[in-house]
Every structure is written in C-alpha cells, then in structure tokens.
Amino acid sequence: MQKKLFKRLFLVLLLVLGFCIQFDVIAEAKRDVVIVIDPGHGGTNMGARHNGVIEKEATMKVAIAMKEELEKYKGVVVYLTRNGDDSMELLERAEFARDVKADIVLSLHFNMSEAHDLHGSEMWISSTGGLKQEAEKFATIEQMLLKEYGIEKRGCFTRLNDLGTDYYGIIRESANFQIPAVIVEHCYLDRPEEYAFYDTDAALDRLGRIDATAVAMAYRLSSEELGVDYSRHYVSNTKLPDNLLKEDITAPETVNLQIVDFDENNNQMKLHLSVSEAESTMTYYQYSFNGGKTFSDKIPFYTEKEIDFSTSAYPTANSGFMVRAYNAYGLYTDSEIYDLNLVLFDIKEPAIRGDFMVPGFITDVLDEIEAFAEELPPEVKTAATAVLIIGSVFGLITMITLFIQNRSKHKISEDFQSKAKGA
Ligand SMILES: [Zn+2]
C-alpha cells in the first residue's frame, strides 16, 4: 500500500518537474532576440572615402536594408543606433544597446588600407569568454555568406589595447555592459575588384540582406514571408576560451615551399605552399624572383594553411625564388630561397652554365683573344687570331650541344630540389 503511494508521489513529482522544464523552454523561446545594428560613423565622422562613396552613407544604406530584411523574421526586435546623419560617440552607441537590452551589437563598416593592397571581409569581435563565443557565432556565418557572394575571407580577429581590454571602442564599451559586439568590415573601398560590392544602392542593399540572413542563421530565426526556416540551422559553437584570447603577436611558425613541377614548353612552374600558424589564420602570400628585393602582388590564401599555385619562371643568372606568407595580423615569414637555375634546369656543372648565362660572354672571349694576339709578332697576328676565333666557335657549339642534351634529360627530382634549396 505504501509502495503504491510512493509511486504516485513520484509520478506527480515527475509531472511537475516536466511541466516546469517545459514552461522554462517556452518562456525562453518567447523572448525576442534583440539586435542592435550600428551604422558606422555619422555626422562629422565621415569614415573612409573612395571611389565616390562615403563610408557613413554606405553603412546607413546597408543598415536600413538589413533592418528591413530582418524584420521579416519572427522573434526578433531590431534597432539602429542612429537613424539620421548624426555624430555619435562609441559609448553612446553601447549605452543605447544596453538600454534596449541588446543580445548583440553589429557595427557596420567598410575598409581601406594604407598601401591599397588588401581586400576581403574582416570581422573584429569581442575578445573575452562568452562574449567572444557569441560574437564569433555571427561573424563566422557572416563571413561564410560574404564569401559565397564573392568577397574573400580575410578572417575574424580580436585586438587588445595596452590595458588588456578590447582595442576597438564599440567592442570595448559594449563588453563593459556584457554585450557581445562585431565590427563588420564588409570589403575594401580602395580595391577595384571589390567596387561592384558597394558602388550602387542595389549592391549596398544586397549586403544588408546578407547581414540579415547571417543574423537569422546565427539566432535560428524563421520567416514565413521569405519562406525560410533556420530554426534547425546548425550553428557550430566555438570552444569557449579559458581566458582572454590575445591577438597573435608572432609571425607564422614555418613557411614551406615545394617546387612540384616545371613545364619547359610554357615556362610554367607548379608550386605547393604549406604554412604552420597556430594562433591565427593566413591571409596572403606573395613571391619574389630576386631573393626578396621585389615581390609579386599579394595573393589571398583560398584555404586555411595550404595552397597550390603556379607561375611563369624565367631563370636568370641570379634567380632566388622565395615566398612570403602573411598571417591575419599582417606578420609574415619567408620560405627558403631556391636557386631556380639549379632546380629548373638540373645542370650537372652549374658553374659552367652560370658563366654561359653571363651577358657579354662572347665579347669577353673575343677580348681575351684580341689581348693574346696583341703579344704575337705582327706577321702571324692575323692568322693566329683567325685560328683562335674558329677554335672558340667550335668550342661554343660543343658546349651548346652538351647543354641541350642535358636539358632534354632534365626532370626535377625531389632529391635534387632539397640539394638546391637555399643555394
Ligand atoms: Zn569604418
């Protein structure tokens, strides 16, 4: 009899508990996500200017489109920090976010670089614990969508000041109120390959809609109007860092360059570049044919740490081929230097071929002959000179024949490459 009573009590307890959990879930699900969109700059603060576009105006157009698109979803409330062309302190923007109980602040921007040599999207996020995790969730999806749209991924970064707090004001001030923040640098205004992503109102509108979709995915929203349901969207949660995530202050650990193949018919050299970089991602590489005196343009890494590429190679007497690889913080490491004369032509006696490559070789030989002939008596001078020249020509033909024979046998062996490395 008592046993039965206990059983009943237990069942009632279970029901109550189940109901509580259920209620909690419902209560949780009912709370709207609060998104604060911050159109970067404003008023007297113009932001970057290039190609006829002013950043403060472009960010506003993107923000309006983003809000409009995001409001088509259920369970979300959207605010803009500024609605007109107002000057606004970063602290004011963060205070606004605090007052409306924002879940996240998304500060919209466009980038520029001093040397006008960078491109791609860049995300700057909160650096500490749960704020970083939350900010990174959005930033990762945002970059994925921008990349699908055609804007290269430069990476997602944190940056600290000397006090060890977030370097960028909007992130730091928001962090003081325990609100995660992301600075979205959509693309670079000063790179022609990215003009099309921002130079019309339609393009800015498109960016705003991409930003909104990233929010919808990160916060698992759905929209009947748009016919999309991200409620089951997979959002990978990055591991919560144990302590402050610091910016990377060291260059990539190693940069390995491998010359895989060389096609003599079109002078194309195939290469494989692999990099080890523990603290951040890679952004660019560039190569040099003269041991680092001058470099090619910066080329983006399309994968995280490894890349195959090819380039034309015309070895000269002094071909020092090398690659310089940059991490997300602009720090670089150089590969070893390859002597392309050795690697690509596999000549058994590089010294001889080296001489042969020196411009003016023929005039040097003629000078030698002339100097030698000067010392001969005048009556044999002409005849001796003629014999020497004919002899030299025969010698030259023999050398060229040997050279061509060697070349046709050539094949790049890994073994030989390692010997030629750093030569
Ligand atoms: Zn800006």
Summarize the structure in short.
By secondary structure, the chain is of the alpha+beta class. The protein has helices at 2-30, 55-70, 90-99, 129-149, 169-176, 201-218, 340-345, 350-357, 361-374, 378-409, 414-420; strands spanning 33-39, 49-50, 53-54, 76-80, 104-111, 121-125, 153-157, 181-188, 222-223, 228-229, 254-263, 268-276, 282-288, 299-300, 306-312, 320-327, 332-334, 338-339.
Give the key terms.
single chain, 423 residues, alpha+beta, Aminopeptidase, Immunoglobulin-like, 2 domains, six-stranded mixed beta sheet, five-stranded antiparallel beta sheet, 11 helices, 18 strands, 22% strand, elongated, disordered C terminus, binds zinc ion
Count of domain modules: 2
Estimate what percentage of residues fall within beta strands.
15-25%
Shape: elongated
- Major sheet strand order: 4-1-5-8-6-7
Reported CATH architecture of the largest domain: 3-Layer(aba) Sandwich
CATH topology of the largest domain: Aminopeptidase
Would you report the number of β strands? Answer: 18
- Secondary-structure element pattern, one letter each: HEEEHEHEEHEHEHEEEEEEEEEEHHHHH
Spatial extent as radius of gyration:
33 Å
For the report, how would you describe the main beta sheet? 6 strands, mixed
| Low-confidence sequence ranges | 23-28, 240-244, 347-359, 408-423
Mean pLDDT: 81
Q: What ligands does this structure carry? A: zinc ion
Range of helix content: 25-40%
| CATH domain class of the largest domain | Alpha Beta
Distance between the termini: 93 Å
Structural class: alpha+beta
The number of helical runs is: 11
**Any idea what the CATH superfamily of the largest domain is called?**
Zn-dependent exopeptidases
